[in-house]
Fold:
Amino acid sequence: MALPTLAGIMVAMPEFVDPTSRLMTSFLAAVAEFRADLDYPVPWFVDDVDPQALVDPAAFEAYAARVLGERNSSSVRPGFVPMTTLWWVDRQRFLGRLAIRHRLTPALEKCGGHIGYDVRPSARRQGHATAMLAAALPIARSLGISQALVMCDTTNIASQRVIEANGGQLLDITEQKRRYWVPITRS
Ligand SMILES: CC(C)(COP(=O)(O)OP(=O)(O)OC[C@H]1O[C@@H](n2cnc3c(N)ncnc32)[C@H](O)[C@@H]1OP(=O)(O)O)[C@@H](O)C(=O)NCCC(=O)NCCS
Structure:
């Protein structure tokens, strides 16, 4: 996507792309940042990267294909539901990722919800998570989700703000989570 500036110059805006080996270098740099991050626990998706994909372009291509394949119920792992993973990218720079679980399970209702997201440490506090969640809502709608269950740890003030900025209505506060319904029709 590109927006015109006042001077008429086109400025690239971050956008979602499908996981792709084209972004291997930037994605792996982000993985290293997530691992070194002292502010948050290492996100689940970082530990889910196939170890060989960290060093081998062919294995990275296979990893990206695996993540893409998780959209189809025929190729999800046991205990998983189909999930659409999208990468938030500014030109060649991987900024973060977001995953939409196509349906809830009792486990996801307690922990995980429909949508999860992570922004690489060097790209935080620039509005990316808020913009990513907003951009994900029409996609969730196209997957048949009419309101998205989105949750964050009770201590995660940034994620709480992201959800509330996207219209999240507080459902409840459990021992560890603030759970919200995010309306999808408003986007
Ligand atoms: C939580 C996270 C996704 C926020 O990403 P981000 O791109 O920095 O978020 P945004 O820039 O859209 O900021 C959203 C709001 O949180 C605030 N914020 C961001 N980081 C913050 C922090 N460390 N402490 C307090 N507020 C913070 C921003 O100022 C902004 O507030 P505003 O809307 O009132 O201006 C990111 O820190 C992250 O990936 N953390 C690790 C993984 C994680 O927690 N994922 C979410 C799981 S529910």
Q: What stands out?
A: The pocket of coenzyme A is lined by residues 40, 43, 116-119, 124-130, 152, 156-159, 161-162, 165 (CB under 6 Å). The first strand starts at residue 2 and ends at 4.
